[in-house]
Write a structure and sequence with these properties.
The chain has 499 residues and is an alpha+beta fold. The chain folds into 2 domains: 233 residues, Aminohydrolase, N-terminal nucleophile (Ntn) domain (Glutamine Phosphoribosylpyrophosphate, subunit 1, domain 1), CATH 3.60.20.10; 155 residues, Rossmann fold. Helix content is 29%, strand content 25%. It is built from 18 helices and 24 strands. The strands form 6 sheets. It has an 8-stranded mixed sheet with strand order 1-5-4-6-3-12-11-13, covered by helices on one side. The protein has a 6-stranded antiparallel sheet with strand order 7-8-9-10-14-15, covered by helices on one side. Helix 1 crosses helix 7. The radius of gyration is 23 Å and the shape is globular. Its cofactor is Mg(2+). InterPro entries: GATase_2_dom (IPR017932), Ntn_hydrolases_N (IPR029055), PRTase-like (IPR029057), PRTase_dom (IPR000836), PurF (IPR005854), PurF_N (IPR035584).
Length: 499
């Protein structure tokens, strides 16, 4: 089995991130296509639809019946996978793709997925969305057993576990490997005969099955199916493995039966509003979140203004419930690329205007209800509040369409440690003073569950993964427990070359 590979950073270097930018980022999105002509081109289109899940890097691996071909690039899908020669570079009828923002392992081309390994049973390419909470523990054990790693990505751990399994069949090797990992993940892989999809036992990260002219598609979100004209078939169930081959789609449930706990932040922020996640329209959920927010935190005002773009559906719901007019008081610049390094505080303060500009005609002299999806450290929120006031707003009432974020995440969301989270360290009144607003309000956890039409939150077995609001983590945090037991820093770095 031969392999042709190409890894390059010719399109852009790893993105510089403003240290005061507190936007949440998800690790990645995955896509897979089986039995379709020019599969790489279809995968590239699917990745375009999933670009919001990761803008740092992207990759595609394809199989042409004899050889695997892969390209991995820093930068956006539209820059990397373009040109009339795409299907010549990545030929074949089976392909998987990945778009990435790094949370585990760091930036760098060697951490970009899909990752490939040539085993005695044939080649395997793999891509996954999420984080393994026992990644460092598994990696340490594998290194002690003689494994050699080429990256600092937890995806490579999965490849090593597959390679070291003593099972004869590749499907059994996957089961053997996935049974050893913990955390939240959705995984797609291709071998020389099959495409495999796996969703973690709690269903924390999403994965859906689609149909394109009778051929199966796997994707992180339904919006990727819409992009290529595929039909949504169903969600991959929590703890399910699907084996796709020329004989069809086979479903396995190789893990212990657990109650599903999908990530609630998919609805709050990450999923595209036109996606349907776990049977719920993301757009409808966000509107209901805004309606509940108006019921719980209503205030006398003149206009409801969203922080674009993620605050728009909730602001529409808030306006409908409150009877206040909805208007675009902030205009987003959709053509901002990589943020420039900003050497002085004065220039940094102006940086927010690269992405958001005040609409003075809407804001001047008005009592403004400003709706955002969430508040993390508060640094960006403060800049936006100041910008709205400078445009002439008489009052600014900030409302978050999610509950206060008080706990960090370890399942694929790039989130600060607890000491950096505004709501974890200040009271509501202290946060309002810090953000320089006339009032501040958050959606309650119960209100969020009502918006999800999930009934009251079950404190014993919650219906969703919601630890960022409640501190109730759905799995063991093995690496963190080990680090604390050794009295090591929680952000333990791997002793490898710079990623």
């Amino acid at each position: 089995m031969s392999f042709i590979g190409q890894s390059t950073d010719r399109f852009s270097s790893a993105p510089w991130r403003d240290p005061e930018d507190d936007t949440l980022r998800l690790e990645c999105g995955v896509f897979g296509v089986f039995g379709v002509r020019d599969a790489a081109a279809v995968a590239a289109l699917g990745l375009h639809a999933l670009q919001h899940r990761g803008q740092e890097a992207c990759g595609i691996a394809a199989f042409d019946g004899q050889r695997f071909h892969t390209e991995r690039h820093m930068g956006h899908v539209g820059d990397a996978f373009t040109g009339n020669d795409l299907v010549e570079r990545l030929p074949g009828g089976m392909a998987i793709g990945h778009t990435r923002y790094s949370t585990a392992g760091g930036s760098g081309i060697r951490n970009v997925q899909p990752m490939f390994a040539d085993l005695e049973t044939g080649g395997v390419a793999i891509a996954h969305n999420g984080n393994l909470t026992n990644f460092l523990s598994l990696r340490e054990r594998l290194v002690q057993e003689g494994a050699i790693f080429q990256s600092t990505s937890d995806s490579e751990v999965i490849l090593h576990l597959i390679a070291r399994s003593r099972k004869a069949r590749i499907v059994d090797r996957f089961i053997d490997a996935v049974a050893q990992i913990e955390g939240g993940y959705a995984l797609v892989a291709i071998t020389n005969k099959k495409m495999i999809g796996v969703r973690d036992p709690l269903g924390i990260r999403p994965l859906v099955l689609g149909d394109l002219d009778g051929q199966p598609i796997l994707a992180s979100e339904t919006c990727a199916l819409d992009m290529i004209g595929a039909r949504f078939v169903r969600d991959i169930e929590h703890g399910e493995m699907v084996i796709i081959s020329d004989t069809g789609v086979k479903s396995l449930k190789p893990f212990s039966s657990l109650a599903a706990r999908p990530c609630v932040f998919e609805y709050v922020y990450f999923a595209r509003p036109d996606s349907v996640v776990n049977g719920r329209s993301v757009y409808d959920v966000r509107k209901r979140m805004g309606q509940r927010l108006a019921i719980e935190t209503g205030v006398e005002a003149d206009v409801v203004v969203p922080v674009p773009d993620s605050g728009v559906p909730a602001a529409i719901g808030y306006a409908q419930q409150s009877g206040l007019p909805f208007d675009l008081g902030i205009i987003r610049n959709h053509y901002v690329g990589r943020t420039f390094i900003q050497p002085t505080q004065g220039v940094r303060e102006l940086g927010v205007r690269m992405k958001h500009s005040p609409n003075r005609a809407v804001l001047e002299g008005k009592r403004v209800v400003l709706i955002d999806d969430s508040i993390v450290r508060g640094t960006t929120s403060l800049k936006i509040v100041r910008m709205v006031r400078e445009a002439g707003a008489k009052e600014v009432h900030l409302r978050s369409a999610s509950p206060p974020i008080k706990w960090p995440d370890f399942y694929g969301i790039d989130m600060p440690e607890r000491e950096q989270l505004l709501a974890a360290n200040k009271s509501l009144e202290e946060m309002a003073r810090f953000l320089e607003v006339d009032s501040l309000g958050f959606l309650s956890v119960d209100g969020l569950y009502q918006a999800l039409e999930a009934g009251p939150r079950d404190p014993v077995t919650p219906q969703f993964t919601d630890h960022y609001f409640t501190g109730d983590y759905p799995t063991r945090l093995t690496d963190r427990e080990v680090a604390e037991g050794r009295n090591e820093a929680n952000d333990k770095q791997l002793s490898l070359l710079s990623a």
